[in-house]
User: Fold this.
Amino acid sequence: MYLKFRTPGRRSRAAAGLAVATAGALGLLGACGQSSHSSSAGTGAIKPGPGQHQTAGMPGATGPGNAAGSAPGASPMPGMSMPMSPPSTAAPVTGDAVAIKNFAFSPAALKVKVGTTVTWTNQDTDAHTVTSAGSGGPLHSAALNTHATYSYTFTKPGTYSYLCTIHPFMTATVEVTR
Assistant:
């Protein structure tokens, strides 16, 4: 093994570049702590604003760039396209399977006959749930890991709204007819 000793006070170009990069990063980190924003809670935590249920920028949030009245298909960030239309506007699709992928239920509106068993399959790497919106609904899955399934047989007509409790912006409906 060959060891090269350097004289004190001399650095290689790589070491000098690393020192400059480290100093720059530390300078940026130091600047981050010097916010001119006041914190009413004193903790500096980001909290949703008045009328918001989520932090601005989260899917389903309201606020600059995510206004509730913005046009369908409007992008919350320039250069990014994200469908912004609510699932209830989609025409119901018939079938008995729902895929959970890309943080959405697909189809978002499903139409089935009484007695149909619907199966949800998680195709995302994150866990999701299938849970009735509101209280008293019939859908109550455990957290579904990748490739896990949940099935439910619908015995009464009606429209069943559901969501993922881990990601509440994920919503969909099942319309059950006779």
Notes: Residues 26 and 50 are 35 Å apart (CA to CA).
